[in-house]
Amino acid sequence: MNDVDYNKTWQSLKSHLKIELDYTKLTAAEKTSVLLSRILIIALMILLGMSVLLFLSLSLAQVLTSATGSAAVAYLIVACLLIIVVLCIIAFKKQLIIDPVARFVSKLFLSPDDNDSNL
């Protein structure tokens, strides 16, 4: 092989590496965008869910106030119910939180690129 063949091969290799680097950057940007948008959607859902939970708790306390005749007892019952919900979430955090997040992130970053539209 002569010098011209080496230069041509080197130029071809450089061009291929540049294309691969650009593709990797675009893929990383796309996957980061998907991840950040999911985080934002989940944060909004949590915020709205907390608002709904607040109003439902206040409504339940009002109903229990009528039933028990004491607002303090009604709010205590609602607080105990919320504590039970929190304890259940803590007890089942692996199934409810950790496993779904791990599945989503591994699917996002480890799946073939032609399946990205299914995320």
Task: Give an overview in words.
The protein has one domain (3-113). α1 (3-68) runs antiparallel to α2. The protein has helices at residues 3-68, 71-91, 93-110. With 119 residues, the protein is mainly alpha-helical. It contains 3 helices and no strands. It is rod-shaped, with a radius of gyration of 27 Å.
Radius of gyration: 27 Å
Task: Write down the domain tally.
Answer: 1
Shape: rod-shaped
N to C succession of SSEs? HHH
Unreliable runs: none
Give the proportion of residues in helices. over 70%
Structural class by secondary-structure content: mainly alpha
Q: Main attributes?
A:
mainly alpha; 119 residues; 88% helix; single chain
Layout of helices and strands, plus pairs?
Layout: H1 3-68, H2 71-91, H3 93-110
Helix pairs in contact: 1-2
Précis, in short:
This protein has 119 residues and is mostly helical. The chain has helices spanning 3-68, 71-91, 93-110.
